[in-house]
Amino acid sequence: MTTLTGDWLGDQEAKPAPGPLRRVQALINTVDRESGIDRLAAVADAAPWLLDNGLLAADGAALDAADVELVVTVREALRAMVVHNTGAPDPDPAAIAPLRDIAADVAFRADLDDAGLVTLAPVGHTVRDRLGALLLIVSDAQRDGTWSYLKACANDDCQWAFYDRSRNHGGTWCDMATCGNKLKNRDFRARRRGT
Ligand SMILES: [Zn+2]
């Protein structure tokens, strides 16, 4: 059992996504795969994070283990999608199935404000509905072109989500100094063993 102390790495993202897409990135980065520390591992830890990040309607709203499990499966679906953005083949249909279920289930409503601005939002306020709001963010990002720059680190042990602001959008690592060089060293050792 790991406990969460101090600041979470994802709270000071080195390569933050713009606008609401940052919320998708933040969810993907609720687990540090290398250390295994997962801030959604326990309902008590997950509740404040879900509240701060708009996935739980209100403080004290009912949250059970099944809700948190759903959030985690959606997190991994989103990760599979950003792994694809790094150049991998299409995500495994089983990996994105939880998000596809939400897309099919959650009811959305359009509102028109006095200035004529149209906004879409889920009708309900359950965790499932609120996860549906992330789909709207992904949809907007896919239209404005920012989606394809939200990538997963190419180190399979890491897969930290980062926003690729490099000029040619060829970024591969969450951080060159850690994952990039580590992998290069590993490849180098593998090559040496192979000779
Ligand atoms: Zn990495």
Describe this structure in a few short sentences.
The protein contains 6 helices and 6 strands; from the N terminus they run αββαααββαββα. By secondary structure, the protein is mainly alpha-helical.
Describe this structure in words.
- With 195 residues, the protein is mainly α.
- The protein has a single domain (14-194), classed as Jann2411-like domain (Jann2411-like fold), CATH 1.10.3300.10.
- It is 46% helix and 10% strand.
- The chain contains six helices and six strands.
- It has a two-stranded antiparallel ribbon. Strands 3-4 form a two-stranded antiparallel ribbon.
- β5 (150-152) and β6 form a beta hairpin.
- α3 (65-85) crosses α4 (93-105).
- The termini are far apart.
- The mean pLDDT is 90.
- Zinc ion is lined by residues 153, 155, 158, 160, 173-174, 179.
